[in-house]
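Supplementary notes for students who missed Thursday's class. We covered one full example, reproduced here. Read the sequence, then the structure, then the short commentary at the end.
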Amino acid sequence: MTTSNGLDRRNLLRGGVTAAALAALGPLDALSARTAGAAPLAKLPASPDYGPLHPVKDHTTGLELLRLPRGFEYLSYGWTGDLMSDGIRTPGAHDGMAAFRRTDGTVALVRNHERGGYTGAFTTPAYNPAAAGGTTTLVFDPDAGRFTDSWASLGGTIRNCAGGPTPWGTWLTCEETTEVGPDGTRHGYVFEVPHTGKGDPRPLRQMGRFSHEAVAVDPGSGIVYLTEDATPSGLYRYLPHTRGELAAGGVLQMLVVPTADGSSYATYGDGTGTEYRDLTWVTIDNPDYAPGQTRPALQGAAKGAAVFRRLEGAWWGNDRVYVVSTSGGPAGQGQVFEYDPAAERMRVLFASPDAAVLNNPDNICVSPRGGIVLCEDGSSGEYLHGLTTDGVIFPFALNQVVIPAGGVPGKTVAAGDYSGSEWCGSTFEPRTGNWLFVNAQSPGITFAITGPWRTGSL
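Structure (token representation):
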């Protein structure tokens, strides 16, 4: 078959999926079946299950910071500038996050801070004592519905954007940059932070130096899948020499979509239902590249690896890896890919046909009930969207954060309209799935949302 760039692509189906392929590819098949080759979708004004959005007061401040379906409620915590339990003030630019069970029944949240600059690390241990990014950790009691503890857990990094949880209870925090600090320290690495304490300031260099965004870990094999926020970017996997011991070394590889002549295939404009089969991987020979050398995505492309447009969010769920291209697809408004490692197949689960349907998704998570939550990072109206198991996309929450003149008692955040801030770090409480945690990056707030989840598909 001939694609839009004139290359024959072996075993690739465009514009739809077969019944056999649907049966093989998992619980969100109806989404692809409903939208493949169809007319552009109109976003539903509300979930058919949860209902329309309404202003809801924050249990912490009394302000109407979010719009949610009726029956849902929330509290806020960990605002920028709040004192943590260790006496350090909460850094700003909240971003990626994941939740972990603790032995006492509470939940630990490890949270990124996408801070740039070299104004000094906010805590130790620090990779680069001058760098301003890092992670903090929060503890939440899901039965009592309250946060109980917080501390700084890693410092000295730059632009900690997303990352991902591991099956062995750590958070992999990713630097979304390849800059070199004033003292010559290279950035652009992944670091590991246990949910129980402080992180390891040693970079996982064999996982590559590039503009890291997110990771998803296969709990069976321990393979780590990585995304890169750049164009062209690659979809990578890290094969550790020993499962669960990432610092002990491994091999970094990049995904190949087969083409007739062995050249690199670009996924940039592919729409909903596009399927890629017989996938393979090529090894990146110089993952920890130095300034002036060829970056990993271009090394991989030279070997025939596929390239993507701004890969960002990644999450493991439903025995699949879900990956977001923020500006991919026919309309340039975003793609959600689903990769099946057992079958070595991947498809475009959803490509936004228009900004009014989905405007540049970023972070992603999968609920315990199988549905997908997408964090929007667009230009107008910042929504959390749901993608359901029966093929419906809908808004679940709307950012309405406005800090009144005079501010909020006990908070250092300045007055202003923050409703244009992106959503980040969506993650469900892992024990029962009764709480969704998510961040508003600016002014920097963490929300805990609960309600009648089981009446819908999230």
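Commentary. The chain is about 5% helix and 35% strand. The helical segments are 19-25, 29-35, 296-302. If anything here is unclear, bring it to office hours.
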